[in-house]
Amino acid sequence: MLLENKNAVVYGGAGFVGAAVARAFAREGAKVFLAGRTASTLDEVAGEISAAGGQAETAQVDALDEEAVDRHADAVVRKAGGIDVSFNAIGHGDVHGLPLLEIPYDDFARPVITAIRTLFLTARAGARHMIKAGSGVIMAITATTARQAIPEVGGTGVAFDAIESLCRQWASELGAFGVRVVWLHTTGLPEALHGDRFPAYATGHEMSRTELDDWLHGKTMLGRMTSLADVGNAAASLASDRAGAMTACGVNLSCGSVPGR
Fold first, then answer.
1. Are 142 and 160 in contact (CB under 8 A)?
2. pLDDT single digits (tens) 79-117
3. Domains of the chain, with CATH numbers?
4. 67: Cβ–Cβ under 8 A, 6 or more apart, which residues?
5. Which candidate, 172, 85, 174, places its Cα nearest to that of 122?
6. What pTM was computed for the model?
7. Among 14, 25, 128, 201, which is most buried by a count of CB atoms within 10 Å?
8. Model pLDDT for residues 194-220, shown as the tens digit of each residue
9. How many CA atoms lie within 13 A of 211 on its CB side?
């Protein structure tokens, strides 16, 4: 197994991405510590992991709360002996469907502020313990809006750009201590979408679910979107020692919608 005897913290562990990553980590042998704001949904994911033969524990943690994040990381280390992997899958509160000329500033800025604050706090909390051990992996997730200019996505693209930039800075400062900092770069995730009507994204009309799927698929080379299974599998591989030479970079899971460079 890729992550046998590893301890992995997943922030936002009850969300679509966090749960997929947590399941993959557990399947590969890691003991998973699920952190998030809602105990009931965290417990549900932990129960699924346990039923599949994995190990998972939960804790209510607001990733925007500096002291709460630090306390939780300290508690994990006291109990498990260390943190080998820290994955940030916190939602950002994005607002889509309005041009920049019309979107309220707070709606634009929220995902940027949330993304940077939670990534900074969770990365720092984990890194303080990882550098003592001389190893560890800090992970995040972004998407095609970090590289493509797409109208009416509010602060989403700026937030993803900022995540990648912050990861590179963390990597430059932690590499000497044996700590890697990496991210996954995906398309949109159809399995995580809710509702039947979606913004126009400058196509000229509000889109149905089918129209949105067709529009997004058309942007890829493979004619398909990133799945949650893709995210989980890639996260487990990237967190493992097999990716030990990788830092300050992302794994491109965009199905060709963002060519590598």
1. yes
2. 999 999 999 999 999 999 999 999 999 999 999 999 999
3. 7-253 (3.40.50.720)
4. none
5. 85
6. 0.95
7. 25
8. 888 888 888 888 998 888 888 888 889
9. 13
